[in-house]
Amino acid sequence: MQALKNVTTLPSLATLRNLRRVHLETMKGLSNLQPVAEARGLEELLAIDMRHLSPDAFRVFAGHPRLRRALVGLGSERKNAAAQEILSLPETTYRSEFEFK
CA-CA distance, 67 to 71, in Å (whole number)? Predict the structure, then answer.
């Protein structure tokens, strides 16, 4: 999801067993990531241009059973590093599924 400022909450993603990747970008109204963390099959999280969030918002992912990669963009290197430390995961790089020539 991208740039949906009126979205302030998400439903629990717990029932989405095949959900492997979540990409949130510039979701200024969203502050609680717990519904995303409930996706038990989640392997990759991208939270890009989420400047309004603090690194503590990512504590809900600590100890997630399948999360393997995360790319976090909170607007400063200090905040990004703090979030990555909380997650204890390798940072992932953004790769588009489409190749343009």
Answer: 12
